[in-house]
Design a protein that fits this description.
The protein is of the alpha/beta class. It is 44% helix and 15% strand.
Length: 274
């Protein structure tokens, strides 16, 4: 014979009370979870990956793989969250193919400071260009000795050595200490990398504006470069360009002129972290 339903033994009033109580508990649990998630949203772990951007509105700051707030915990940045029309020019340099002198000429003409992130062999093979960068007021940053995927390096000593070799080479070339600004090769990073760089006194610099300029076998035309860069320019942008790009060597003077006409000024990378 079937058992009587449990409700028949506690009465209708008890059933209604239990249902209300259960609903209340569920609502409370959901609300508590929502609050927890909102708190954690500003402090979530940074995932390993390659730096990427999503441009959602023309002329406004793009959304990065990690928020500016999360990166700030590791002395890292990808944009200056400001209303001021200011740009930070940065160049990655893995080797030299005759474009850097043209780029330095354009920067000098516009009195525009820039940061050059150099790998070890660049310092070894192009000491005069490195000296010129420093003499003309630019910042030289650390792009590692061998341009490895640093996210695969979990050992602190190995990570440190990749940066230290660049420091030593810079000291040999210039007689100065390398400014402690770090850019992960290919933009590949992990939270451990960011933490190790921070512990070594570095500030990690990502970017909020770039275009496909690194493929020397398929360089963009001038119009293509302008059409990619100008509409996406935004206040506080950290601009990533490659000093190996023939297009960049040819357009930089005009590009800087166009940005100046739009009211932008160019600031040294130190200001990004001030």
């Amino acid at each position: 014979m079937r058992n009587k339903p449990r409700t028949s033994r506690i009465g209708l009033t008890g059933v209604i009370f239990m249902k209300k109580r259960d609903v209340a508990i569920c609502i409370y649990a959901v609300a508590l979870a929502a609050v927890f998630l909102m708190v954690r949203a500003g402090d979530r772990a940074i995932e390993t990956g390659s730096w990427g951007l999503s441009f959602q509105t023309q002329g406004e700051t793009p959304v990065g793989n990690a928020s500016a707030k999360n990166l700030e915990r590791f002395d890292a940045a990808y944009v200056d969250e400001t209303e001021e029309k200011v740009l930070y020019l940065t160049f990655d340099a893995g080797y030299e193919n005759g474009q850097t002198a043209k780029i330095l000429d354009a920067l000098k003409e516009h009195e525009a400071p820039a940061a050059f992130f150099l790998v070890g062999n660049y310092l070894e093979r192009n000491p005069e260009l490195v000296k010129r960068m420093v003499a003309e007021g630019h910042t030289v940053g650390n792009h590692t000795a061998h341009h490895y995927d640093m996210s695969k390096i979990g050992d602190r000593a190995t990570f440190e050595q990749e940066l230290k070799e660049v420091e030593d080479l810079f000291r040999q070339v210039t007689g100065q200490e390398l400014p402690k600004y770090y850019r992960p090769p290919q933009g590949i990073y992990s939270e451990d990398n960011l933490r190790m760089a921070q512990e070594l006194g570095y500030r990690t610099v990502f970017w909020s504006l770039a275009y496909v300029d690194w493929n020397n076998d398929s360089q963009p035309s001038h119009d293509e470069a302008f059409s990619k860069l100008l509409p996406r320019t935004h206040n506080g942008a950290v601009v990533l360009l490659h000093s190996t790009s023939k297009t960049n060597g040819e357009i930089l003077d005009e590009l800087l002129t166009k940005w100046e006409a739009e009211g932008y000024r160019f600031a040294p990378i130190e200001e990004l972290f001030s």
